[in-house]
Amino acid sequence: MTEHTNKQFDADLESVRSQFLQMGGVVEAMIQESVDAIPTGDMELVEKVREREKQVNRFEVEIDERIGLILARHQPTAIDLRTLLAVSKMLTDMERCGDEAEKIANTVRRMYEADQRFMPVIEIRHMAASVGRMLHDVLDAFARLDPVLAAQVVRNDKEVDREWKGALRNLITYMMEDPRTISRAIDMVFIARALERIGDHAKNMAERVIYLVRGADVRHTGAKNAERQARGEVEAETAESNGEA
């Protein structure tokens, strides 16, 4: 009976992990499609993003319900419990990444319906590549239980923040030099802000992966501490100070 229960639990846990990774794949596609639509005004891509957002919402509800059932039926402990708690928290961040991608798509629609010419901003292109890579890496870190890769995602968020500030400065300059660009520049600010928030959500998920693997809460403690916890250095230092190493 116990073996049967354990097999069912393992299957349920793997299903949660698999569904979350599928959800992440959909969100990755949303980000890429919304960004691809910016310079082209491709409304087919915009509609794809809007449809995928509904799929992401369904994933969130289904995974959340499954986690609740597993907790009630199996009362997991240790890393299994941390996995479920981590995924439960990461679900919210992943769904919000999808929301931000949809915001970008909706902004693109508004720009082109108003017949506004695309305003190239180099930082936005860089930001899009950076946050796409962050999300891909955090999914990879989760799939492989790799806290070191997750810590790199935490570190990379700082670069995205710098690019966001650079984009904002450039767009403000455009608006000051030529008031005719104000409407277009504001739309580009919305897009840059959405990308920056996706980076924040990816960082949050990376911190959860470190918690999942190491049992350490690295939120609000900085990238350096996240990297040390990910490598297990803090635990080793504690053991040495207690005369255990």
Structural commentary:
By secondary structure, the chain is an all-alpha fold. It is 87% helix and 0% strand. It has helices spanning 2-40, 43-74, 78-113, 122-144, 147-177, 182-214, 223-231, 233-241. Helix 4 (122-144) packs antiparallel against helix 5 and helix 4 packs parallel to helix 6. The longest helix has 39 residues, at 2-40. It is flat and about 65 Å long. The N and C termini lie far apart (41 Å).
Helix-strand layout with pairing:
Layout: H1 2-40, H2 43-74, H3 78-113, H4 122-144, H5 147-177, H6 182-214, H7 223-231, H8 233-241
Helix pairs in contact: 1-2, 1-3, 1-4, 2-3, 3-6, 4-5, 4-6, 5-6, 5-7
Which outline best applies?
flat
Helix/strand structural class: mainly alpha
N-to-C span: 41 Å
Q: Give the beta-strand count.
A: 0
Structural features:
single chain; 245 residues; mainly alpha; 8 helices; flat; disordered C terminus
Summarize, please:
With 245 residues, the chain is mainly alpha-helical. It has helices at residues 2-40, 43-74, 78-113, 122-144, 147-177, 182-214, 223-231, 233-241.
